[in-house]
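Course assignment 3, question 2. Fill in each field.
Student: A.L.
Task: Predict the tertiary structure for the chain below.
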Amino acid sequence: MNPTESAVWASFIGDALALGPHWIYNPKKIRRLFGPISRFETPPNGSYHPNRIAGQFTHYGDQTLWMLDQIHREGAFHMSSWKARWQEELLDYDGYLDSATKVTQQALQKGLNTASESNDLAGAARIAPLLLAPNLLSESARVEAARAQTAMTHGDAQVIDAAEYFMRLTCRILAGESMNQAMAHLRGRSFGDLPLEAWTQQAEDLLQMDTTKALVKLGLNCHMEQCFPSTMYLLLKHGDDLQEALLENVMAGGDSAARGMILGMVLGARHTLAPLPSLWLEQMEKTAEIQVQLNDLRRTQQEPSRKLEFPNAQGDMLAARLEHPEGEARAFAVFAHCFTCGKDIAAASRISRALSKQGYAVLRFDFTGLGNSDGDFSNSSFSSNIEDLIAAVGFLKEQYTAPDLLVGHSLGGAAVLAAATQLPDLKGVVTIGAPYEASHLRELLKPAIPELEAKGDAEIDLAGRSFHLKKQFLDDIDAHKPEELLKDMRADLLIFHSPVDTVVPINNAGNIFSAAKHPKSFISLNQADHLLQKSADSQSVADMIAAWAGRFVE
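Answer field:
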């Protein structure tokens, strides 16, 4: 079992194990009712969960299961879908409804998009399934989703910040850091309103004390000022033993379900489930259902190339393909293809796939009206290409994580240079055989220009294919002034160009280099043709992009 799945399983186990003694605040009473807990228990009479039996979940676990199922249904996590699913499930839910759930549900029923003011850590406890969402593949994307899902029901800033902390802690452990390394790294960071240093110190001060006594001293209730330090104590003291941590947690009492789900996620990412009693998975009512969902999501995550689509500014759906590496992506990039080409042209597909093998996730897409994208090509322009690029970046930012790189081939290179000035967080821009000015296309369109000027539109033959163009295309490319754009670009720039390029002469690379500010680099592609038809040329470009970008994306 891989560590990510182990984190999800252990989170569910943490909740199911806490069901019986949940919200019993007297450790002696827990021992009297259940003895030393070693298996799932049915809640006693008078419990907050009177209609639940051993092996089922508390309301925390139920909501987490709904989230996992929604991710499984859509093959992705979308906050709007999750919110709708959450409301739908609550209509006939027979489990306990806590204050945060009831207040949020009532507000949504009134059309208000407001959460409760609850300060319960439980709002941050249902985040483990986000680790499996195929569209949340980076730490930043998972953190954003964890914060959003928590804020849906818990408006308290500390709870939302706690969701970020525990998600980052889990991601760092999944990335190979030890518990001590991950905690030390995060301890130096600010997490908004979360007093991480003070609460961690509270836990550390009691590490020599018996666990139950220490947790009673730190506090057993749901609220952040007690539940967070108690969870940190369990992670610090029992971080080497998942089973011991979960059992010590439930024997102490209080809101052991919220603590248990977080303990399970963090420690499950560090350990496999092998040391846990097999009876626990056998007893858990939803084991078979969860296993099917995890299997399906694993297969989806392992797909190296995924078909996607996203809307542009006009609402047309643009066809795209994401080439994703195995495991975590070092960074995300967007590839813009050449004029009238398409995302599946050899250079675009080869470079994207080669970059994915070196750890980069690359989204390539068809501009409006080309390939499998919707829209009318005759109504497109260089400006609409730029808008499509901005839409692609926005799509990645919303569904995955914001891209660090833009890569553009030929006219796509001119487009990424223009788009970069609108993307202040961009780290790098790469051009391949790009014209300095978009008006370079006038030479390519020269046979049709008289008809375009006279009639306003014309048919033009390019590479054996016929395209319908309007005069607005000419007017638009003439309006773009590259020298103004380049002087405002702040991202690192890498320029590729072949000295024997007969479509876009080498002097264009010189003009781009001269107009751009440092940091900037130029690499000659020797005998490569404009379309990089030799696979070795595409591979070489990908290798050099990966090496160059490696300086600033990690």
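Instructor remarks: The chain has two domains: 3-299, 304-437+481-549. The two ends are 28 Å apart (CA to CA).
Grade: pending
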